[in-house]
Amino acid sequence: MPEPRRRKLVPQLVVAVLLGGLAFAVTVQVRGNDSEAYSTLRQTELVELLRSLDAANERASQQVDELTRTRDELASSSQQSQAAQRQADKRATQLGILAGTLGARGPGVELTITDPEDDVNAAILLDAVEELRDAGAEAIVVNGTARVVAQTYFVDEGDEVRVGGRTVTRPFVIEAIGDPDTLAEAMRIRGGLLDRVENSGGTLDIDTRDTVTITALADTQDPEYARPSS
Predict the structure, then answer these.
(1) Which of 113, 111, 118 has its CA nearest to residue 183?
(2) Smallest Cα–Cα separation from 112: which of 171, 57, 167, 59?
(3) d(CA 14, CA 42)
């Protein structure tokens, strides 16, 4: 091929390559236009146009990266919020059980105090509750109706005993949720509840249970003196 003709073809090949890259990069734009219009542009104009498109693509890529990071951050934040919500719900449930505002279920013991001479009084029932708490009881109820919490009081009323706002009658049945073996063993400690009940002329039956269900809720009362600290 003669040298002059070869030199003439080189710019044409460059233009053809640039046009091909341009068509690939701006498919959407050129789809509705006549591609021959670009053949009238000078080489420098095509190069500048491609640089402009490259810059636009770079900005679009940066925006995609930013949106991706935002999406990931939102997903992470959502997961953290969900985890925090689950933790808060779990904590609320734990406090609800301890405060007696929620029912409870779990392994534990059932204590039945039979008292033919009516000599088992409020003090002995209070001892039973304290010994159960010391042994790790997490929820306690007397006769299925009187939920025992921190504010619960025990008072003798004739032949009956008032536990908080509920009156309980004999036989006394105390259900407690906790480690069954630990709770049962605590009741049998020398000088403990078993001895006190027997010394009062009563009998104490201790049954371990795989499942103890407590549905009674504590009687709530508005505090007279205490107020939120903030």
Answers:
(1) 111
(2) 171
(3) 11
Q: How far apart are CA 17 and CA 224, in angstroms?
A: 88
* Token representation of residue 128: 């039973």
Which has more confidence, 4 or 227?
227
pTM strictly above 0.85: no
Are 73 and 80 contacting, i.e. CB atoms less than 8 angstroms apart? no
132-172: pLDDT as tens digits: 999 999 999 999 999 999 889 999 998 899 999 899 999 99
3-state class of 207 per DSSP? strand
* CA 87 vs CA 26, 82, 92: distances in Å: 52, 9, 9
The partner residues of 162 in beta bridges, in order of sequence, read: 155, 167
Cβ proximity of 19 and 38 under 8 Å: yes
Question: For residue range 180-219, what is the model confidence (pLDDT) as tens digits?
Answer: 999 999 999 999 999 999 999 999 999 999 999 999 999 8
Query: Do 149 and 165 contact (CB within 8 A), yes or no?
Result: no
Return the structure tokens found at 132: 């159960």
Show Cβ contacts of residue 194 under 8 Å, excluding neighbours closer than 6 positions: 187, 188, 204, 206
